diphosphomevalonate decarboxylase (Brachybacterium avium), 321 residues
Amino acid sequence: MRTATARAHPNIALVKYWGKRDEELILPAAGSLSLTLDGFATTTTVSLDPSAAGDLFSLNGAEASPAQSERVTRFLDLVRSRAGSSSPAVVRSRNEAPTGAGLASSASGFAALAVAAATAYGLDLDRAELSRLARRGSGSATRSLVDGLSIWHAGDDDASSFAEPIDGPAMHMIIVTIDAAEKAVSSREAMRRTAATSPYYAGWVDSTAHSLREMTAACRAGDFTRVGEITELNALRMHAAIEACEPPIRYLRAGSVAVFDAVEQLRADGIEAFATADAGPNVVVISRPADSAAVAERLGGLGAVRVVGAGPGARLIPEED
Ligand code: PMV
């Protein structure tokens, strides 16, 4: 096939990926666990164009920046070398979430690109192989190949570092967007700086491996409360390690902290909700599905609120145009 379109959704980690053991292969320092969402999709079409001078990448209808295009070309080079092709491609991508706002658009972006590019270049890959391929674009994309809850095994080489499904309690995520602007320090740079300069990095990696074991057990037991407790703890530990970088990086703003405060108050009032945040100011709150409307209503004054649930892993869709 020379043209393929895929759709993928972002995922939000309950146990975070923060730090690489291998920069080139994007092997993480520890495993992680996330929920693939049913909103904020990325839809990407890859069309081979053997007569073009080079790849062309457009994002939301406009030509992408040189840095974004370079990242896509580096990813396509991997696919081309496996497929034995030298053909450039036209890549058209549409994001339903604001790019670079800590809502993991790189996860849905590279998951959709992996599926569409593998198909367009004629590679026949299974889900684990697609998950490994997506990993090379952006670590968190590894998990967006999986429906719903997903565990990314850190692995110790390219073959063993991929994501697969895991059972767990039903939950909703209430996304509170504080600021949709592009973040000042990319997660790639901030991870490098954390590993190189944060005195808490080693503690972060050790405690994450431990949290992942506890989280896996809590998921299998369907224990929403424990899942929530580990989620909030793990997020705060990640931000503590990041804030201790030199020079420091602080992703959480006053508005983010206000959401953590409100979530604490919700719990005091008897509604079980727990907060997490990625590399940006926006906060994601998890609750049982039956409580999400009440949680969203309470958090409504603190940012733009959207309730999402578990969504599908990246897959091919019929051509749109
Ligand atoms: O895949 P990246 O480089 O965008 O890193 C994602 C890092 C976090 O979103 C902060 C955590 C995670 O596990 O998704």
